[in-house]
Amino acid sequence: MKLKKLLALSLVAVMGMSIVACGSSATESAAPAEDNGAAAEAPAKEEAASGDVTEVELWHYFDASADAKAIVDWVDEYNSLQNDIHITATYVSREELMNQYTIGALSGELPDIGMVDSPDMASYISLGVFEDITSQLNEWGELDKFYPGPLSSCMDADGNLYGLPQNSNCLALACNMDLLKAAGYDHMPESLDEFKEMVAATTNPADDVYGYAMCAVSTEEGTFQLLPWLRSKENGKGVNVDDLTADSAVNGLTVLGDFVKNGYMSKEAVNWTQADAWNAFAAGKAAMVECGTWHLAQTDAIAGFDYDFCLLPTGDKGTSTSTIGGENFGICSGAENLDACVDFLTWLCSKEKEGEWAVTAGKIPTRSDSVANYDYEQDGFAVFVDEMNYAQARGPHAEWPRISEAVYTACQSVFVDGTDPKDALTKAMETIKPIVDANPLPET
Amino acid sequence: MKKRTIIAQKRREAYGFILPAFLYVLLVMGYPLVYNVILSFKNVDVKNLTKGGSVFVGFQNYIDLFADPTFRLVLKNTFVFTIACLVFQFTIGFAFAMFFYQKFKLAGPIRGMILVSYMMPMAVTGLLGKNIFSNAGLINNLLLKIGIVGPEWLVDTGTAMIAVIVMNCWVGIPFNMLLLISGLTSIPSEVYESASIDGANWGQRFLHITLPMMKGSIFSVLMLGFIYTFRAFDLMYIMTSGGPLNSTDVLGTYSYLLSFTQYQFSKGAAVAMVLFVCLFAVGLFYLRLLIKEDD
Q1: ipTM of this predicted complex?
Q2: Model pTM above 0.90
């Protein structure tokens, strides 16, 4: 009987939890851990806090070794430069931070300054997570120095600004020159047709080597890497995500689908993150890989072969398409110390700091007047800086996550189930069309 | 007259004792539940969560969901996952319970060790599963040793669910075993002894003594197992993220996807309600059984 009562009790508890869990799974584990680096500085912080100092809480999700250390150093430097404002940087995992913004939109529990992936910013602006700081930034007077693409991702539909783009990146192609040479090529692919040839020629099942590797995972990361192929230029024409049934988009997806079908690209791409795809390339298991600017800071992982970078060969010879990535920092709604936050933000995104950050973290500055003196992989950075001319933004659109899901789902159904690319993209448009009809994408 | 006031006073005292628990349930379970019900009948999304302007749309979210093939797949997945897990973890768990109930050397320590997989956080189990079932993972490596090229477990829509079910059973078997062993201990050994004296063999003893006397425990284990499994979330979230192509998405993960990735809060709430209603029905059925047995 005791057992039965116990069971009945646990039943009641479980029933209740099943519904509460759906709404609050994020809050339970929300206690963010402070950066190791920042924690070590604790005594210094206490000292600073005892005076008449404005405290500012900053949450970020930098987790690669280079930028995780850089943000701590940067914050320390800012704190030591003046005595009025004290910034505390706290690391929160990306997923957790996004959940915190969603919950914080209702509860109001937000940091003072928050980091956000550029395509997600429009949704959080719409959710009221970030504060409109247009007038403060206009007063600053340096807005015209920012590249329009990254800056637009911090704006709402009316052009009001809610933050600043802190770093920028895009996608290009990394090639294993040894494998290309072995297959009889002394150069990197310059067009989609040549790329198809090279991928087929470098695939070697006997050594578990695929011609091409990329990330097609069912998250924003997958959409990020898939979009260049859907927005490719064919016969001089390319389309945006509001017209994915166009020939150029269908052709781009057909090429990738054929890679999987013919065994030139691993089907596991649908579970691979960008880091997984890069690791396969670095280990010599893929002749070519779609990679991001930040990978230039990770070339030491490459296992003893000759490598080089080129523009993504997504379409006609002489054209390329790529996706703009990057992180923004916004000031959260209800931040009491708005002026202090703006002061730090404008320092973080100043001409000098933008250039330094790009070198340290392997990114591209968001300002045209910043100079990044890369002291490694200079040729690689030159390719990515050139690729930025062809790179397109995602949105900005408040419902971008739904568009993004439709895009990666269409591509995954081609890779996993062998769905016809045209059918898959037609189905994606059934989701995307009503969204962009109600709120069109900005002109590119 | 005096007696009546004493009774009334005692009753008031009794209510006083219930009050804290009642308030707790009201606040911690009642509030989110009511909030969720209301949310599921509105059209709250990324555009109007904080800016206002959301309206009641009746059953529109539910109609949309049941018209959506993805949701129907998710609903099917949830039942397939739950029933398959129940069948395997119950039968294997029962066999283990019978075996480890026997008094032999090391029975206790081994029983304890089997429990380790139950004590492991689901997130760890999910990560383990991800490695074990990856293309070049443990299972495919073992298969290769005997000359079989294993399937792409987590990449194919047909096999991903199998992998998730196996990992869940790995956790569920010790849970079933534990509860069933405590059921076995409640059967007096005299019953078996007299049955043996009357000449009943092992099979007869199992069918006519063990099973009938375990009826209560078996129902409890199955019901609790159903509820635990039906509301699965963390295993899929870590191991497959619901993919590929929603083939391992269950109501829990799908509700999360709609609410926290796509900001379709009302649709997410409606999915959570479907999950709740299914569990509520099972819960009522179970409570009725308990009450009936007590009578």
Answers
A1: 0.84
A2: no
